[in-house]
Specification:
The chain has 464 residues and is α/β, with parallel strands linked by helices. The protein folds into 3 domains: 165 residues, Glycogen Phosphorylase B (Rossmann fold, 3-Layer(aba) Sandwich); 68 residues, no CATH class; 208 residues, Glycogen Phosphorylase B (Rossmann fold), CATH 3.40.50.2000. It contains 17 helices and 15 strands. The strands form 3 sheets. It has a 7-stranded parallel beta sheet with strand order 3-2-1-4-5-6-7. It has a 6-stranded parallel beta sheet with strand order 10-9-8-13-14-15, sandwiched between helices. The longest helix has 20 residues. The mean pLDDT is 95. GO terms for molecular function: transferase activity. This is UDP-N-acetylglucosamine:LPS N-acetylglucosamine transferase. Keywords: Transferase. It comes from Mariniflexile fucanivorans.
Length: 464
C-alpha cells in the first residue's frame, strides 16, 4: 500500500522548491501518494490539478506573534553571550512604538524577554507557544483533517512560518511523523526556527552543524542532509533558449553583452537603486571606450517600491527591465508567489548575461551554476544618513563566514573601482567562479541536482 505524504505549505515560499521542480514526479515515481496540505491562497488543485487538502482556517493565537518575537530576541541574546559575538544583535528589527497598541505590544514583548532571557527561558517560551496554538480553532480544524485523511508523514516546506505551528502540533499529537525543510541559507543563525518537528532536512553539512549548534534540543539523528531543490533547475538544459530567441522575446540587442543587475528588497538594501545607477554609469563609460554593453535589471520579486523608477528612466539607453514572473495573490510579502515560467526565465537570464551584480544576494549561486561571475557591492552611498541601514552590515552576517576565501565573490569596496572590475571580468582577467563553486558546495551541498531525490530517500528512511 502506498504511503500517503502530506506536503504542507504554510505559506507560498516553498512553491518554487516543491511544486515547480520535479519534486512531485520523483516522489510519485518512488511510490508515494502525495497530497498538498495547502494553507495558501494559491489553489494547487485548480491551477495544476494536484491532490490538495485546503486549510481554510488561518487563525493563530493573538499572543503567538508576540511570543515568537520574544523568542527570536532571546535566542539572539543567548547566541551573543554563548559565542561572544556582536553580530547577533544586528539580526534584530527595531521595536515599534507608533501608537498605543504597538507600544503595548512592544512593552509586553520586552517583559517576556526580561523574564525569560536564558536557554531555560527559551524552553518556557517554546512550551507557551505550543500551549497557545493548541488552544486555537485552527489546531482542532487541522487535527480533524488529519484524522480524516490519515497521512503517514507531514513534510513542512519551511521552518519559519507561524501558520504551521498548530498544524504540526496536531500531527505530532496524533502520532504522525513530522519533518521540515530549512528554507534559506541564512535562516539558522538568524533565529528563524519557528517550528519543531521530528526531523529536519537541511541543505548541507554546514547547515546541519548550525542546527546542532543553535538548537541543542535537536539530536543528530533527527537531521538529514538533502541539498535544496532551489538550484536544481539551473542544471536542466532543456530550459535553455537560444540567444537569438531569448533576445527577441525580451527586445534585447543581440549585438550587446548584458550584465544582470539583481535587485534587493528594501530592508536588505534600502539604497539599492543607487548601485544600479553606478553600474549604468560604468557601462556608459565603457561603451564610450568601444564596448557594447547593456544592463538587464531583474527586480526583487517582493519589492513593490517605486525607488528604481527614476534611475531606470534616466538610463533607459542602457537598462532593460525584465521582471520576474511572480504573481501577487495577497497583500503580504509571502503571498507573492513564483510562477513556473520564472524558473525558465531566470535560467536564461543567467545563461545570456555576462555576470551578475547585487548586494549580498544568493543569486551568486544561481550564476555560478552557469559559470558566471558575481560582483557584490560593499561601499556606502553618499545618500546614507541616520535611520538608513548600511549594506555593509550584511557581509558581517554569519552565513558569509562560510566563504572559502574572499575571492568567492568579486567585492567592489569603492565606487571608483566598479568600472575597472566590470572591464576586467568582461576581458576575462577576473572571475570568482572557481572559488564561488567551492562556496556553492559548502552552502548547498555536494549534490545540487539530487536534492528532491534525497528528500524522498529521507522520507522513506523515516517511514521504515
Amino acid at each position: 500500500m502506498k504511503k500517503k505524504i502530506f506536503v504542507f505549505f504554510p505559506d507560498g515560499v516553498g512553491l518554487r522548491n516543491f511544486v515547480f521542480t520535479d519534486f512531485k514526479d520523483i516522489g510519485e515515481n518512488k511510490g508515494f501518494d502525495i497530497h498538498y496540505w495547502n494553507n495558501t491562497v494559491f489553489s494547487l488543485k485548480d491551477n495544476l490539478g494536484f491532490n490538495e487538502v485546503k486549510i481554510e482556517n488561518h487563525q493563530t493565537h493573538p499572543l503567538t506573534p508576540l511570543y515568537l518575537r520574544a523568542r527570536k530576541h532571546i535566542e539572539l541574546n543567548v547566541s551573543k553571550r554563548k559565542f561572544d559575538d556582536q553580530v547577533y544583535p544586528t539580526y534584530k528589527f527595531p521595536f515599534n512604538y507608533r501608537g498605543f497598541k504597538n507600544t503595548l505590544k512592544t512593552l509586553y514583548i520586552k517583559s517576556l524577554i526580561g523574564l525569560n532571557n536564558s536557554e531555560r527561558g527559551i524552553e518556557r517560551i517554546r512550551k507557551k507557544i505550543n500551549t497557545l496554538e493548541r488552544s486555537t480553532s485552527k489546531y482542532a480544524y487541522c487535527k480533524a483533517q488529519l484524522e480524516v485523511h490519515k497521512p503517514d508523514l507531514v513534510f513542512c516546506t519551511t521552518q519559519r512560518a507561524s501558520q504551521s505551528i498548530s498544524a504540526l502540533l496536531a500531527a505530532k499529537d496524533l502520532g504522525i511523523p513530522t519533518a521540515t525543510f530549512v528554507y534559506s541559507w541564512d535562516n539558522v543563525p538568524k533565529a528563524m526556527q519557528v517550528v519543531e518537528t521530528d526531523y529536519y532536512f537541511v541543505w548541507s553539512d554546514l547547515m546541519k552543524a548550525e542546527v546542532l549548534q543553535y538548537y541543542p534540543f535537536v539530536k543528530e539523528e533527527q537531521i538529514f542532509v538533502t541539498g535544496t531543490p532551489q538550484f536544481e533547475t539551473h542544471f536542466d538544459t532543456s530550459l535553455l533558449e537560444s540567444r537569438v530567441n531569448f533576445f527577441k522575446q525580451y527586445s534585447l540587442d543581440v549585438n550587446k553583452k548584458y550584465i544582470c543587475y539583481s535587485g534587493d528588497d528594501e530592508t536588505t538594501s534600502p539604497l539599492d537603486q543607487y548601485y544600479l545607477e553606478d553600474l549604468a554609469n560604468a557601462v556608459r563609460s565603457l561603451n564610450n571606450k568601444g564596448y557594447n554593453l547593456g544592463i538587464i535589471y531583474r527586480k526583487c520579486p517582493v519589492d513593490f517600491t517605486k525607488r528604481y523608477d527614476a534611475v531606470i528612466e534616466a538610463n533607459k539607453d542602457v537598462i532593460e527591465v525584465i521582471d520576474p514572473i511572480w504573481k501577487q495573490v495577497g497583500t503580504m510579502w509571502n503571498e507573492v508567489l513564483p510562477a513556473k515560467e520564472d524558473l525558465k526565465l531566470l535560467y536564461n537570464v543567467c545563461e545570456h548575461s555576462e555576470f551578475v551584480t547585487n548586494v549580498c544576494s544568493s543569486t551568486v549561486f544561481d550564476f555560478v551554476a552557469h559559470n558566471k561571475p558575481c560582483i557584490y557591492y560593499n561601499y556606502e552611498q553618499p545618500q546614507l544618513k541616520k535611520g538608513i541601514r548600511d549594506i555593509g552590515q550584511n557581509y558581517k552576517y554569519v552565513h558569509f563566514r562560510s566563504m572559502p576565501s574572499d575571492q568567492a565573490a568579486v567585492f567592489c569596496t569603492n565606487k571608483n573601482d566598479l568600472e575597472g572590475l566590470v572591464q576586467q571580468i568582461l576581458d576575462g582577467k577576473l572571475s570568482n567562479v572557481s572559488e564561488g563553486k567551492k562556496w556553492f558546495e559548502i552552502v548547498a551541498g555536494k549534490t545540487p541536482t539530487k536534492a528532491s531525490e534525497n528528500i524522498w530517500k529521507a522520507v522513506k528512511t523515516i517511514l521504515e
